[in-house]
Amino acid sequence: MLKTAATALCLILGLAAAQAQDSSGAASGPSAAVPPPAPAVDTLPAPITCSFEKVFVCEASGCAPSTELGTIDLPARFLIHFGEQIIASVSDDNVPHISSIQSVIGDGDTLILDGNDNMAAWAIELSPSKPEATLTTLAGGKVLTAFGTCKPAE
To answer: Mind listing the pLDDT tens digit for each residue in 92-123?
Structure first.
């Protein structure tokens, strides 16, 4: 969203500069200072599903394996939908849960998604071309780290 806002601001400033040149009698045509228009839509990854099979919960006293990811028994499954900016899961009592993705950053073949939900912060690191994924949450003085795999949603 920041990228889109920055591109829009550059375009507005470029148009204002072009109009100022036209009204001053300068030759019309594209200015070297006006950036080319941004693509209409950024390409988003297709939805993916992730399954987390190994979880560790850490407190000040140490870390230990867990059989649950929060309140979800292992394996815990999630749907990540980049277009809708959500992560969806279902609790053990079959109640759906949706968490909003606040940001997605990427560097090469790595994506990091983050957000917060009910006083818990979370981040997921994954790769569009490799199955490995890591989820970390922190809340209530505890840090939870889960390891799993992701694949394209079917």
So the answer is: 888 899 999 999 999 888 999 999 998 999 99
Q: Residue 111 burial by CB count (10 A; 0-12/13-18/19+): exposed, middle or buried?
A: buried
The structure's pTM equals 0.69
- Which residues make Cβ contacts (< 8 Å) with residue 89, sequence separation at least 6? 72, 76, 77, 78, 79, 96, 97, 99
At 20, the pLDDT band (50, 70, 90 cuts) reads very low
| CATH numeric code, 48-152 | 2.40.128
Distance CA 124, CA 117 (A): 14
CB 79 within 8 A of CB 153: yes
Residue ranges per structural domain of the chain: 1-41, 48-152
